[in-house]
Specification:
The protein has helices spanning 14-29, 33-37, 87-101, 116-124; strands spanning 2-7, 47-53, 56-67, 70-78, 106-112, 128-130, 142-148. It is an alpha+beta fold and 151 residues long.
Length: 151
């Protein structure tokens, strides 16, 4: 059974998971990693969800306001040894619930085309591919998604 903690980017359980995520992304992104890293700073993220199993952190995700009713998903990660158990879907569901409580009516996100597991997750969770937005417009290695939240 998993427990979900709503917190912020100052939570000490969040930092090691983000460090592990960044190591993985540095490998996957290769020469483009510095470009993407500039958009993934974790200072001042007010809405972080951390999944715990037996009091140990096993995954995380975050949302931040993109526009007044649109939240952007950031820093989704599940420890490699915990993958395949549905944890990422549960984190995403908790983020969606929190976003609704905050008055959001849709989500957007960017992921890399080399992040096949992430693309599968978002597709499975009924996110649809959209034109690359903001800083990702014209970036060929990015794929962006959106999901309208239903009350």
């Amino acid at each position: 059974m998993y427990q979900f903690k709503r917190t912020d980017s100052e939570d000490p359980d969040f930092h090691p998971m983000v460090a592990e995520l960044d190591k993985d992304l540095a490998i996957r992104d290769g020469d483009e990693h510095a470009f993407f890293a500039q958009f993934n700073k974790i200072d001042s993220i007010n809405h972080v969800v951390i999944a715990h199993e037996n009091e140990l952190p096993v995954g995380c995700g975050a949302i931040k306001e993109y526009k007044p009713t649109i939240m952007e998903i950031k820093r989704m990660f599940v420890s490699p040894e915990q993958r395949g158990k549905g944890i990422a879907s549960l984190i995403l569901s908790e983020l969606e619930t929190w976003a609704k409580e905050l008055g959001a009516n849709s989500f957007i996100l960017e992921t890399g085309k080399k992040q096949h597991e992430a693309i599968s997750l978002y597709t499975k969770c009924r996110y649809t591919i959209i034109e690359n937005y903001g800083q990702y417009a014209g970036v060929e290695s990015s794929v962006c998604f959106e999901k309208k939240l239903v009350s």
